[in-house]
Amino acid sequence: MNDEITGRTAAEIVGSVRALRERGALAPGDLLPPVRELAARLGVNRNTTVAAYRQLSQAGLVVSRGRAGTMLVEHDAVAQEGYAQNTVLRDVGTGNPDPALIPDPSGILAGVAGRPVLYGEPVIDPSLEAWAREWVAPDLPASDFRITITSGAVDAVERLLAQALMRDDAVALEDPCFLASIHTVRLGGYRAIPVPVDDEGMTVDGLRAALDAGVRAIICTPRAQNPTGVSLSPACATALRALLAEHPYVLIIEDDHFSMLSERPYESLIGSGHRRFAMLRSVSKFLGPDMCLAVAATDPETADRLAMRLSPGTTWVSHLLQRLALGMLTDDSALATIRTAGAHYAERNRAFAERLRAHGIDAEYVDGMNLWVRLTQPARVASQQLMRRGWLVRTGDEFLLDETAGPSHHARLTVHDLNDEDAAQLAADISSAIG
After folding, report:
1. Whose CB among 51, 143, 285, 391 lies 3.0–4.6 Å from 10's, allowing a Cys bridge?
2. Do 23 and 118 fall into the same domain?
3. Are 127 and 275 in the same domain?
C-alpha cells in the first residue's frame, strides 16, 4: 500500500503514513519507500521526504535499518522509572527512595491551609519564593535570576524546551541519560544529540561536537547523574563553562534532582554571563515522588516565557502544596530525616559495592540513589540469568542514546532497601550470572 502515501509537505506525508497505519493498510514490519523514490513519486524535494521520515522516527513509528530501508514498528513506550508491574521477581531497578525515610507531612498539613487562593493572585507563594532564592543562590553563578515553581522537574524541562525550541530542534543529552529526559525530548519532537559521560561528568569533546551539530538546548545533571551517579569535577565544569561562553544563547538546563541528599559540592555549567539558563531542584527524592514540586531558577527572559505557561488558576502549582513543601523544608525534624536518608543511601550503596568487589566485580559508589555496575558481559544476558534467580534488574540499554554503541555492559541497581542477607544473595547471584 506504499503507493497510497500522499502529501506535498513533511507534515502531510507524516499524516498520510499515520492514517494508513491506523486503517491497517500499513502494519509493523512493512517497509516505506526509499526517500528518493517517494520524493520522485510525490513530486517533492528529497529534503521534504527526509524531514517526514525523521518526524516518524522521532514519534517512534518507524526505525531506520540503513540500506535495508525504513520499517514501521510498534509504538513502544519509553522505559519509565518505578516498580515493574505484574512481576513476581524481586525488583532492584526501581529508582525509588525509601518510603521510611520520607518525612511525614501530617504534622505540618494542618498549619498550611490558611485562606483560599483565588484567580488572579500570584502563582508563587511569596515565602517559598524567598526561601528558594536563598537555597539556589550560593550554587548559581548568575546573579540576575528569577524563581518559578513547577509541578516537578520533568514538568519544568518540558515547559522550558517548549518555550525555547521548535519541533526538530537539537537538544544535547547526557549518554547514558535519565529516562524522563529521553521521554520528554522524544515526545516533544526534538532531536537528541548524545554527549558521552565519563567519571568527571559530561565530556568537553562531546559537548563541543553537540554544539557544532547545532544544539539549541543542553540538559545536564551536574551531580549524582542518573544513571551513573557521577558529578562534574571542578576542572571539567570550568572547561565546559569556557566552551559555553562562546554560545551564550544556548539554553542550559541543570537538573539537580539529588540536591539535599548529595554528598558532593555543586559544579555548574552556567557561567556568570550566560544568557539562557535554568537550574532545577525538585523535592521528589527527599519529600517523595507524590510531592510534585520543583524550583526553577532562570534568567529573566526565560522566566517571563515560563510565566506565560503558568496561568493563575489553571496551570499553577497548588499553593497548599507550595506551603506544605516550605513547611517541611524548614522543619527541623523533616530536615533531620532528609540528612538521615542521604547518609543511608550512601552507606548502603557503598556496602553493596564492597560486596561486589569481594566477588571480583569492579564496582564503586559515587553518589545518588542507585549503583551503576559494569559487567563483564552484555547486561541483557546477565539480566536473563538473574531473572532465573528471582531478580529483576534494569540494564543500561534503556539509558543509552547512541544506537551504534552496541549492547550495554552496565546495570543500574537500586539496592538501598535490601537487608544484609538479601544484599549478600544478590551480589552472589550477580557473580554467578556473569560467570
Report:
1. 51
2. no
3. yes
